[in-house]
Amino acid sequence: MLEQLSLEMAGARKVYTVSQVNAQIHDLLEASFPELWVEGEVSNCRAYPSGHTYLTLKDENAQIQAVLFKGAAFAVKFKPQDGLKVLVRARISSYVKRGDVQLIISAMEPREKGALQIAFEQLKAKLSAEGLFDETRKKPLPPYPTRVGIVTSLQGAAVHDMITVLTRRWPGLEISVWPVKVQGEGAAEEIARAIAGFNELLPGTDILLVGRGGGSIEDLWAFNEEPVARAIAVSRIPVVSCVGHETDFTIADFVADVRAPTPSAAAELAVPELGAVLARLGDCRRRLLAYVQERLRALEARLGRAREHPYLQSPRRMYEERIKRVDELSVRLPEAVGRVLAHAEKDLRLRMEKLDAFSPLKVLGRGYAIAEKMPEGAILRRAEQVKAGDRVRVRLHEGSIYCEVRDA
After folding, report:
1. In terms of pLDDT, which residue wins out, 178 or 369?
2. CA 217-220-117 angle, 5° bins
3. Is the CB of residue 241 less than 8 Å from the CB of residue 220?
4. Is the dihedral of CA 201, 206, 210, 213 positive or negative?
5. Same domain, yes or no: 389 and 345
6. Same domain for 54 and 146
7. Do 243 and 347 belong to one domain?
8. CB distance 211 to 194 below 8 Å
9. Which residues are within 8 A (CB) of 293 and not within 5 positions of it... i.e. 6 or more apart?
10. pLDDT, tens digit, for every residue of 271-299?
11. Which of 113, 183, 312, 364 has the fewest CB atoms within 10 Å, i.e. the most exposed one?
């Protein structure tokens, strides 16, 4: 200190730029603190398109900035969000440009729930909000399939169990198996590709069985990942999910058209049991035969009653009465027609007399005449309608006289 003071007094003080100060702070923090575990509550969490997530860790008395870079984020199964209490492994550093102290996170664990459980709940809530679990979008299973597809591993007992049950219950069924990884890195992508492959390459498949045998939540995790859920949701082929044991539930179960508690149960749901179908057919045959026999007996009895009817005993009776009725009508018809014609003739005569009374020819018979201007034939009612030289026809009771006007 004395040396520095003497240097300053001599005018030889050391001057730093802000960048240099921030850089030295950064180097000091990076060198002085190894990785450590920090507990806190997530706040101001922001995920960027780059894949990096920036957040604040806080407790009751303080807070510190933190960043989860994309490379480390792949190992975190759940999505950081405000309000979660977490334990992070991080190193202390600083952002040189602003001089902010921050934690560089390399791992993150939830404090109140397991990471996989939080990831399960987050994805379930997301897909439910999109409607992928709605019953209205689920497809019914065909009652009598001819082709069944299976998406599972060839190494487990599940594929053997499913094939055994399918062939025992419905002989002659066409079965296609698309082998996939069912756990570990890349398993979800393989399962999703297999579901899409059946839809694209084997569209005639009636039902898809997608699943595996039992295991821990980590073993079953591929069926809780978004690619598998999306592939099931868009499948045109009805999907039966069969993952783990009866108590295991995965995201695939909620999206699938039907959920089976085990792979063997899925095979039982997919196809009917031939013996039961044959028994139902036999029962239907017996009931149909009984119905036909009952109907035949009823018709036979009806025919017997009809055979005893008087009309069938003597069919002539059916038309004897009608013959008599026709004869009566044939006698009455001319009389009726005569009366109608006589009445019509009388009415016609009266109408003709009335019409004749109004005929202008009757007037001519009493000495009157009708004058018509020629050549148009207009009736003359006044003298001024004609002039000297016009031709006039005068119609008399008998015949006509053609005249020429001399003076008008």
Report:
1. 178
2. 40
3. no
4. negative
5. no
6. no
7. no
8. no
9. none
10. 999 999 999 999 999 999 999 999 999 99
11. 312
Q: Which amino acid is at 369?
A: A
Residues 137 and 97 in one domain: no
Identify whether 301 is part of a domain: no
- Per-residue pLDDT reduced to its tens digit, 19-47: 887 787 777 777 777 788 988 888 889 99
pLDDT at 361 over 70: no
Cα separation, 37 vs 84, whole angstroms: 16
Tokens 């009636």 belong to which residue?
206
The alpha carbon of residue 30 and the mean position of all alpha carbons in its chain are separated, in whole angstroms, by 59
- What's the domain range around 392? 364-404
| 126/382: higher pLDDT | 126
How far, in Å, are 197, 208, 253, 384 from residue 232 at the CA level? 12, 10, 10, 108
Quick: pLDDT tens for 228-268: 999 999 999 999 999 988 888 999 999 999 999 999 999 99
Q: What is the phi/psi pair of residue 90, to 5°?
A: -155, 165
Taking residue 182's Cβ as centre, other Cβ atoms within 10 Å add up to: 26
pLDDT of residue 4: 54
Q: Are residues 62 and 87 in the same domain?
A: yes
- Whether 171 and 144 have beta carbons less than 8 Å apart is answered as no
Does 297 map to a domain? Answer: no
With b for 16 or more beta-carbon neighbours within 10 A and e for fewer, the 343-377 pattern comes to eeeeeeeeeeeeeeeeeeeeeeeeeeeebbbeeee
Domain assignment of residue 1, yes or no: no
Question: Is residue 294 domain-resident?
Answer: no
